[in-house]
Design brief:
Number of helices: 8
Low-confidence stretches: none
Number of strands: 2
Number of domains: 1
Helix content: 55-70%
Strand content: under 5%
Strand order of the largest sheet: 1-2
Structural class: mainly alpha
Shape: globular
Order of helices and strands: EHHHHHHHEH
């Protein structure tokens, strides 16, 4: 008889909800922009900005695997990890690995820039971002162009992220998607030591309320 796998919780509910909400909001923003649904695009962007503010806060006060201090490593460590992976040397991580940590930072950065430039953008006809009136028309036009350019960068990062997930699934036999759904990994896929420390969901709700209030304060007349 095979010994049943012991599952260990590594991702808290807030991180998992954030991850999949981000996927849906990026898709919604893309589809709404392509189809001229600018009001939907605006609300999708505002929701995205609020979630990004929440995730940045949670990166400092949240569960251990959610914290930047846990998964952000030096570029040298990230390169060493990639070299070790290429050699087939297994390195176990409860949360993001050193290379994945830089991908998370890159995605958070470009998505934040996308959301912020959208606040100042316009379509040249009838739609203006909530903060477009606070800057000159010329600057709003430049930020609108930048808004479109950044989205192409986002698509590139999303493609790289998907390729990395497929690589881990079919080359290294490590499923990264399932833990982001159910929150758990088999203990055999974790490094030695105590399990990740997860923070109660009520603190995430408090952080989310703060993020909503902060975005509202930025946008208020």
């Amino acid at each position: 008889m095979q010994t049943p796998l012991k599952l260990v919780r590594v991702w808290d509910l807030p991180v998992r909800v954030f991850h999949w909400s981000l996927v849906l909001l990026v898709l919604c923003s893309w589809v709404s922009a392509e189809n001229g649904l600018l009001r939907v695009h605006l609300w999708s962007g505002l929701a995205l900005l609020t979630l990004l503010v929440f995730r940045i806060i949670w990166g400092f006060v949240g569960s251990s695997t959610a914290r930047f201090s846990q998964f952000v490593r030096s570029p040298r460590q990230a390169l060493e990890y990639l070299r070790a992976t290429k050699r087939g040397e297994g390195q176990l991580h409860a949360g993001h690995n050193p290379a994945g940590g830089w991908m998370v930072l890159a995605l958070l950065t470009v998505l934040s820039l996308q959301a912020m430039t959208g606040l100042f953008s316009n379509d040249g006809i009838r739609f203006f971002g909530p903060l477009a009136a606070r800057i000159s028309a010329a600057l709003s036009d430049r930020l609108t162009t930048l808004h479109g350019t950044i989205f192409n960068v986002i698509l590139t990062f999303v493609w790289l992220h998907i390729v990395a997930v497929l690589y881990y699934r079919y080359v290294r036999a490590e499923n990264l998607v399932a833990p982001m759904i159910n929150g758990s990994k088999p203990d055999a896929m974790l490094p030695a030591g105590p399990p990740p420390k997860l923070v109660a969901v009520r603190w995430a709700l408090l952080c989310l309320v703060f993020a909503v209030l902060l975005v509202w304060w930025i946008l208020k007349p």
